Automatic annotation (TrEMBL):
Residues 339-367, 413-434, 776-796 are annotated as: Disordered. PANTHER family: WD REPEAT AND HMG-BOX DNA BINDING PROTEIN, WD REPEAT AND HMG-BOX DNA-BINDING PROTEIN 1. This is Minichromosome loss protein Mcl1 middle region domain-containing protein. Residues 451-750 form the WDHD1/CFT4 second beta-propeller domain. The keyword Repeat applies. Residues 339-364, 784-796 have a biased composition (Acidic residues). Residues 760-871 form the WDHD1/CFT4 helical bundle domain. The keyword Magnesium does not apply. It comes from Lodderomyces beijingensis. InterPro entries: WD40/YVTN_repeat-like_dom_sf, WD40_repeat_dom_sf, WDHD1/CFT4_beta-prop_2nd, WDHD1/CFT4_hel. It comes from the Eukaryota.
C-alpha cells in the first residue's frame, strides 16, 4: 500500500468523490470551489469550478454534480461545461443531504425542516413536492435496482420509500437503528472544534442488487438488513465511532477517526486494516473507493488522502474484490451464498474491445465520447489509464433495435471474444446480415423476431455497467430487471402493483438475464429466451417453495419469443412460443401438457377471465396473422391464422400493446399507427373484424393542435370500461423512472379530422361499436365460463352489463338526435331523414318529429310519423 496527500485547498471541508467513467477525482470544498483532478497525471492542472460555500453533501450523476449547503440551498454544477447551473431549490433551514434518483431525472433532498423534498429536473424549471417527516432529515441513500430510498432521521429511525412512481410511498420503517443526532451547525461547519460531536455517520447504503441495506448502528458497527423481511443478517464492527463507510463490489471500507478497515462483504473476514493521518491534524470526512484496490479519504483541512493498493486483486484476502478469488469465495461457507452463487457462464456483454475499426477510432458510446472531449482540460489520459469498463458501438453503428433483450448474437451461438467469453458485439456488416433470418417452416425470408412481452421496453442505458428495462406491464402492475454486468454481480427483479391493497411489491435476486415475463394477480412467469428457461414465482410466496424453474427443450436455432400465463382462479396454464413456431403448454407446476406446431410466434396474451389465449404469428416479412385458442377445450382454435393490422415501421415498436378487454375481446395497439384495435364478432367463425377504438397520438396531442404536446405519447396498459388505461409519456418513447401515474383516455372512434369538431357522429359510431361488443359478450358469456370456477368470481355481473348496454342505447339515440338537429338547421332534409331512419326507439322518433315541427318541416315530420308506424309493426310482429 502507498499513501499520498493531495493538497489542492489550504483549508475547509473537502468531500472526495471518484468519477469512474472519467477516471477523475472530484473534490468539493466548503470554501466555495470544486476541483476535477487527474490523479494519474501529477503534472496536469486540475479544473476549478466555483460553487456555493458551506457544503453539507454532494451527489453526482453523469456530468452533473448537485450539492447542498447549510444556507438551505441546492445547486447543480455542470462538470462538462465547468459552470454552475444555478440554484434549483432553496429553503429557510439547512439542507443536510441529497441524492439523484430515477436515472438522474429527480433529486431527493432534505434537512432541518423535517421535510423530504422531491425535485423534478425533467421540465424547463425544476418542480418540487414535499413529504412531511417525523423528524429532521440526516441522510438519503438510493437503491438503483429496487427504486427505493432510505432516509435517516434524527430520532434514530430509517424510513424506506418507494421512489418508482411520481408519488413516493413509505414502505417500511426501521425504528431506532442509528445513533440519534441533532445538527447544530447553521453556517460554517467546524468539525474540528464546535461541531466535533456531529462527526459520525448516520448514512445508509444499498448493495448493488438492492437486496441488502447497510446501516451504521449505535454500537459502532455496520449492520446488514435483508430487504425481504428487514431482519438483521450480519454485522461488521469497527474500533470507534464510524465517520463513513462505502461498499464497492465485495469490499466494505469502514472509516473511523484514525483507522480504516476493509472487510470482505461475502465472508465477513477482514481484508486490510491500517491507521493514517493528515497534515495539519485534519480529521477524516468521507471515504471513497478508487477503482477496485485504492481509497480516497476527504478531510476537514482541505487535503484528500489517496491510498493505493489497499487490497490485492485476485489475492486471498481481497478475493471477491476484483473477481480474482472467485473460486475461493464460492467455496467459503457464507451467509450470502444464495446471492453470490451466480452462473459460471459469463455473457461478457461489451467487456471486450471490438476489432475492425478501419480508422482506429475508439469505439465508445456517444455519451462517453462527449464526456471525454469535454473533460480534456482535466488532463490527458495515459495509455492503459482510465480504461472504460465497457466499450461499445454507438446505437447508430450497431442498430441495436435489431438486437433487443440482450440477444446480440445469432441464435445459434455467441461470437467468442478474449478468454473464450462472448463479446456480445458485432461489426456493422455482420449486424445487418443477421438482422434477417430464414424461416425453415415457411420457406420465405422473414425479419428476425424479437422476444416480446406485453408492456416490455428496451434497456434504458445500453452499454452501461448497470442497466434496466421493464419486462412486462399491464393493468395489474409491472416488473423490471436490473442487469449488472460488473464481475461477480447478480441481476435483480422487482415486481410491483398499481393496487397495493391486494399485493405488496417484492424484489429478488436473479442469476439469469430474464427478458420475458407475464404476470397476473397471483404470480409472475419469467423467461430467458436464449437459454430456454422459464421461472414461476407466486406473489404471496415470493421467498418460499412456491416457485420453480425448468428448461424448455429447444432445437437448433430455436429461442423463446413470448410467454404467458392464464388468469383463472385455479388450474392456470403456461404457454411458451418460439421463433420457429413451437407452442408448448405447461400447468402451473411446470408439467408439460401439450405441444403444437404453428407459424413463428411473435406475441402471446391471456384473456382477462377466461381460458382463451391470443397469439400473433409471423407469416412472412412484414406479414402477420393471429389465432385465438381455448385451452379448456383441448386447445381448440376459435380463430386461426387470420389477418391482423400490424406493420413494421422504422424506429417504432411492432406492437405497443396487446391485451384483452374486460369482456375478453382481444386488443392490439400497433406501433405503426398508434391506434387501439379491438376484435369484434370473433366468436362467430369467419365473421371476425378489427375495429379502431382510439388513435392514441391524436388524443394525446389534441390532433396536433397543441404545440406543447406535440411530442407526447402514451403507453397502453389495458382497457377499463370505455377508456384506455395508459401512462402519459412527455419525454421519450418508453416509460422511464419515475413511472407516471396511470391515466384513462376515453375511447374516441377515429371519425374526426380536428379536435374541435362536433363529436355527435363519433359518439354514434362509438355507441354502436361498444354496444355490439357488449351484446356479443352477453350472448356468449355462458360459453366463456371457466368450468373450474366454482365460486363465480370470473362471472361479470349481468345486471351491470345490461345497465351499460342501456347506456349505449341512450347514447345512440342522443347522438342521432344531435346529428338530426344539425342537419335540419342546415336545411339538409334528405340527410336528416336518412339519420332518422337509423333511430330504433319510438321515444327518439317522437323527439325527431318535434324538432321537425318546431322548424316547420312538416313533410319531414310526416315521414318520421310513418317510420314510427313501421317500427310499431316490427315490434308487434316480434
Amino acid at each position: 500500500m502507498s499513501l499520498k496527500n493531495i493538497s489542492q485547498f489550504p483549508d475547509g471541508n473537502s468531500y472526495a468523490h471518484y468519477h469512474p467513467q472519467l477516471d477523475r477525482l472530484v473534490v468539493t470544498n466548503s470554501n466555495g470551489v470544486l476541483k476535477i483532478i487527474n490523479v494519474n497525471d501529477p503534472e496536469s492542472l486540475p479544473v476549478s469550478i466555483d460553487c456555493l460555500s458551506n457544503v453539507t453533501s454532494v451527489s453526482i450523476h453523469g456530468d452533473k454534480l448537485a450539492l447542498t449547503t447549510t444556507e438551505g440551498k441546492l445547486e447543480i454544477v455542470d462538470l462538462a461545461t465547468h459552470e454552475s447551473l444555478g440554484e434549483k431549490y432553496r429553503t429557510a433551514l439547512s439542507l443536510r443531504d441529497l441524492a439523484y434518483i430515477n436515472s438522474g431525472n429527480r433529486i431527493l433532498c432534505g434537512g432541518d425542516d423535517s421535510k423530504l423534498v422531491v425535485i423534478d429536473l425533467q421540465g424547463d424549471e425544476a418542480a418540487t413536492k414535499t413529504i412531511a417527516l417525523q423528524d429532521q432529515l440526516l441522510d438519503i441513500a438510493y437503491d438503483h435496482a429496487g427504486e427505493l430510498s432510505s432516509v435517516s432521521l434524527s430520532n434514530g429511525s430509517v424510513e424506506i420509500y418507494s421512489v418508482f412512481n411520481e408519488e413516493l410511498n413509505l414502505n417500511h420503517t426501521l425504528q431506532n437503528v442509528i445513533t440519534r443526532k441533532i445538527h447544530t451547525s447553521m453556517d460554517e461547519v467546524d468539525y474540528a472544534q464546535e461541531h466535533r460531536d456531529e462527526l459520525y455517520t448516520t448514512k445508509t447504503e444499498w448493495t448493488k442488487d438492492g437486496r441488502y441495506l447497510l446501516v451504521p448502528g449505535a454500537d459502532n458497527a455496520v449492520h446488514v438488513y435483508n430487504r425481504e423481511n428487514w431482519n438483521k443478517v450480519r454485522s461488521f464492527p469497527s474500533d470507534g465511532r464510524i465517520v463513513d463507510f462505502k461498499l464497492h463490489g465485495n469490499n466494505l471500507a469502514i472509516l473511523t477517526l484514525n483507522v480504516y478497515k476493509v472487510y470482505n462483504f461475502e465472508t465477513g473476514k477482514t481484508v486490510h486494516e491500517d491507521d493514517f493521518e493528515f497534515r495539519y491534524e485534519g480529521l477524516p470526512l468521507n471515504i471513497e473507493w478508487h477503482d477496485k484496490t485504492g481509497l480516497f479519504i476527504g478531510s476537514t483541512h482541505g487535503d484528500v488522502l489517496m491510498l493505493k493498493n489497499v487490497i490485492s486483486v485476485g489475492g486471498e484476502e481481497g478475493g471477491g474484490g476484483g473477481g480474482g478469488g472467485k473460486s475461493k469465495a464460492r467455496a467459503a461457507a457464507s451467509l450470502f451464498v444464495d446471492e453470490f452463487d451466480e452462473d459460471e457462464e459469463e455473457e461478457g456483454e461489451g467487456a471486450d474491445k471490438v476489432e475492425g475499426d478501419e480508422e482506429g477510432e475508439d469505439l465508445t458510446g456517444d455519451n462517453q465520447r462527449e464526456m471525454d472531449d469535454l473533460f480534456e482540460r482535466a488532463g490527458p489520459r495515459e495509455n492503459g489509464k482510465g480504461k472504460r469498463l465497457y466499450e461499445y458501438l454507438s446505437e447508430e453503428e450497431l442498430d441495436l433495435d435489431d438486437f433487443d433483450n440482450s440477444i446480440l448474437d445469432d441464435v445459434g451461438g455467441h461470437a467468442q471474444g478474449k478468454n473464450g467469453h462472448s463479446n456480445g458485439l458485432h461489426k456493422k456488416h455482420k449486424a445487418s446480415n443477421e438482422a434477417r433470418t430464414y424461416s425453415k417452416n415457411t420457406g420465405v425470408t422473414s425479419t428476425r423476431i424479437h422476444p416480446y412481452s406485453p408492456g416490455s421496453t428496451s434497456f434504458a442505458n445500453r452499454g452501461d455497467a448497470v442497466d434496466r428495462r421493464y419486462l412486462t406491464m399491464n393493468n395489474i402492475g409491472y416488473a423490471w430487471i436490473v442487469i449488472n454486468r460488473e464481475p461477480g454481480a447478480c441481476n435483480s427483479i422487482t415486481v410491483s402493483f398499481f393496487d397495493r391493497s391486494s399485493n405488496s411489491e417484492y424484489h429478488f435476486t436473479a442469476h439469469e438475464k430474464f427478458d420475458l415475463a407475464s404476470m397476473n394477480n397471483r404470480c409472475i412467469l419469467l423467461g430467458d429466451s436464449t437459454k430456454g428457461l422459464i421461472h414461476y414465482k407466486s406473489h404471496n410466496n415470493a421467498g418460499s417453495s412456491e416457485a420453480w424453474e425448468r428448461q424448455v427443450p429447444l432445437v437448433t436455432d430455436e429461442y423463446i419469443t413470448s410467454i404467458c400465463i392464464t388468469n383463472l382462479p385455479s388450474f392456470n396454464t403456461i404457454v411458451v412460443g418460439t421463433n420457429i413456431g413451437y407452442l408448448r403448454f405447461f400447468n402451473q407446476y411446470g408439467v408439460c401438457l401439450n405441444i403444437i406446431k404453428t407459424q413463428p410466434v411473435v406475441a402471446l396474451a391471456p384473456a382477462s377471465t377466461t381460458s382463451n389465449i391470443f397469439m400473433i404469428n409471423q407469416v412472412a416479412a412484414n406479414v402477420y396473422s393471429y389465432s385465438i385458442i381455448d385451452i379448456n377445450q383441448d386447445n381448440k382454435f376459435i380463430q386461426q391464422n387470420c389477418s391482423i393490422p400490424l406493420k413494421e415501421r422504422a424506429n417504432r415498436q411492432l406492437i405497443k400493446g396487446i391485451f384483452f378487454s374486460e369482456h375478453n375481446d382481444p386488443c392490439v395497439v400497433g406501433g405503426y399507427d398508434d391506434t387501439v384495435f379491438i376484435l369484434s364478432s370473433w366468436r362467430e367463425a369467419g365473421n371476425a373484424r378489427w375495429v379502431p377504438l382510439l388513435n392514441c397520438h391524436n388524443s394525446i396531442t389534441e390532433y396536433g393542435s397543441n404545440e406543447n404536446k406535440k411530442n407526447w405519447s402514451c403507453w397502453p396498459l389495458g382497457l377499463v370500461n370505455d377508456s384506455l388505461n395508459c401512462l402519459l409519456l412527455k419525454n421519450g418513447q418508453y416509460p422511464g423512472f419515475p413511472l407516471p401515474l396511470p391515466i384513462e383516455i376515453e375511447m374516441e372512434i377515429p371519425t374526426k379530422v380536428k379536435h374541435e369538431e362536433d363529436g355527435a357522429e363519433e359518439e354514434f359510431v362509438r355507441s354502436v361499436t361498444m354496444g355490439k361488443l357488449l351484446s356479443d359478450s352477453l350472448t356468449h358469456r355462458e360459453e366463456e365460463k371457466d368450468d373450474d370456477d366454482g365460486d363465480g368470481d370470473a362471472d361479470e355481473d349481468e345486471e351491470a352489463m345490461m345497465e351499460r348496454l342501456n347506456q349505449y342505447s341512450m347514447s345512440f339515440d342522443k347522438s342521432l338526435l344531435k346529428m338530426f338537429g344539425e342537419s335540419c338547421k342546415e336545411s339538409k332534409l334528405n340527410k336528416a331523414f336518412a339519420i332518422a331512419k337509423l333511430i330504433k326507439t319510438d321515444k327518439a322518433l317522437i323527439a325527431a318529429a318535434k324538432i321537425s315541427e318546431r322548424m316547420e318541416y312538416m313533410s319531414l315530420a310526416s315521414k318520421i310519423g310513418q317510420l314510427r308506424e313501421q317500427l310499431q309493426i316490427e315490434i308487434d310482429s316480434d
